[in-house]
Design goal:
Layout: H1 7-34, H2 39-45, H3 49-71
């Protein structure tokens, strides 16, 4: 009977999680840097719902791309 916890797989999942989170944060910062306005100011203070929806869609797209790149 195999061991219920395979530490190699747990370590790999942890490393990929850290790598994916860092890649997502960097991509989000670059996107925020390339646009003329600050995302958080526009969404939180100006209540720009359209921008919030677009940023949400971009976040989901970036997450799918990063997950596909990590998975191989």
């Amino acid at each position: 009977m195999e061991n219920a916890f395979n530490f190699h797989q747990i370590l790999s999942a942890f490393i990929y999680t850290i790598f994916g989170s860092i890649a997502f944060a960097v991509a989000f910062k670059v996107l925020n840097w390339l646009t003329p306005n600050d995302f958080w100011h526009e969404i939180l203070e100006e209540h720009n719902q359209a921008l919030a929806i677009v940023i949400g869609a971009v976040s989901i797209g970036l997450s799918i791309i990063i997950a596909s790149a990590i998975k191989g």
